[in-house]
Amino acid sequence: MSISKSNLKVIIVGGGPVGLTAAHALTKAGISFTLLEQRPSAVIDAGSNLVLQPEGLLTLSSLGILPQIMAASTALGKIERIDHKGRSIGNVDWFLNMAKKYVNAKYRHDDTNKASTGHAPRTLSRHDLTSVLYNTLPVDKQANIIPDKKLATITSTPTGVVVTCTDGSTYEGSLIIGADGSHSKSRAQMHSLALSSASTSVNEETPFLTTYNCLWIRMPISATQGIIPGISSETHGKGLATQFFAGDDTAVLGIYEPLPEPTKKRQYFTSADEQALVERWGHVKLLHGNDLTIAEMYAKRAQAGLVTLEEGVLEHWSWGSKIVLVGDAAHKYTPSTGSGCNNGMVDACLLAKELSAALEENEPIEAARIEAAFARYQNLRKDVSIATCTGSGRATAMATWSGSILSFIDVHIIPRRIVQNFIGKRITV
């Protein structure tokens, strides 16, 4: 492949928060893109609420859209922690400590080379985040976002790639950014192409391991008494943990339950499966000094869904100069530390920066330069992704008291101020 900068065209597969962030970052870099989203719209009114951590907020700030994000989100403070019977096991100040920490300069992705203090973490709905990301794109770039396009196959050509969708439509480009989540079709196609080309860089076909399920529930704040925007609460105990976050209008709950045995096989759930989980754990309280239970919140739900929580980091994040993965397609964590979306947005911006650096000269762009940009991007992100995946898994295991040592640490060690200060200032995203 040898093309000029003006002819480089990126196809982004997946229009969630990470794919839309990639669209912003490529726009800022002056790189043309087409984004294919399988849903009817890139503004998604589905899924659990999200927590934006300091580095995620810095990413959005570097794209010039932090004011809109701040207006659409709610600041989070201390996290109240209780056991299954509603008894306090000590509050933690992760979010406040994260707001004070300095961000390591090597993970920065804006035009400065200075470390910067972070912002306090904030929560907002997936709908509000995708709405801000979409509406702040230039109008001509919004036209490059094409809904109702589900990836079927990727074909490699001498000059780039051809994407064929399930409706028969095709799109030609120079390369693909796969931002289509933990069950990524881009990753599956990359695996097939790597095998067929006899590449030595082939990932496992099913690379992620599932140890936990998660039932998420969204409820209007007005549906119950005593919930103030910004409240964060966790319930910990043997076999089950919950995380509760309240925004201005809605509250969201994540319920983590270990599987009987870890598996790499994808599972699908029905409403009957949701109700069975609620029957098992409906009595568990969610807030200190408040009688709200899992069963009550589920009964008052606006939306809910039961999903698997895959975990893992790919060995290879790209194939040649044709396909590169970002976000959950490349690395997947349990959401206990809220790092998934934040990491994906950082991925997208750093990848765009590396591509832009490869395109600085106006001479024809050889495939080797694109491959080198992909390699630099992976080198910047892989170690921190492994550390974050490990930390998220440990946090979930500790919250579900998966062993006597972990439960002891959770109840007797974590509440100590010196421990919180030490850990909070070292949380990576």
Automatic annotation (TrEMBL):
Record's Pfam families? FAD_binding_3
Q: Which Gene3D superfamilies match?
A: FAD/NAD(P)-binding domain (3.50.50.60)
SUPFAM superfamilies hit by this protein: FAD/NAD(P)-binding domain
Keywords in alphabetical order: FAD, Flavoprotein, Oxidoreductase
Instruction: Identify the residues that the record assigns to the FAD-binding domain, covering every copy.
Output: 8-361
**Entry-linked InterPro entries:** FAD-bd, FAD/NAD-bd_sf, FAD_mOase_fung
One GO MF term attached to the UniProt entry: monooxygenase activity
Q: Which family does it belong to?
A: Belongs to the paxM FAD-dependent monooxygenase family.
PANTHER family recorded: FAD-BINDING DOMAIN-CONTAINING PROTEIN-RELATED (PTHR47356:SF2), FAD-DEPENDENT MONOOXYGENASE ASQG-RELATED (PTHR47356)
Q: What's the protein name?
A: FAD-binding domain-containing protein
Gene source species: Gomphillus americanus
Task: Read off the lineage from the record.
Answer: Eukaryota, Fungi, Dikarya, Ascomycota, Pezizomycotina
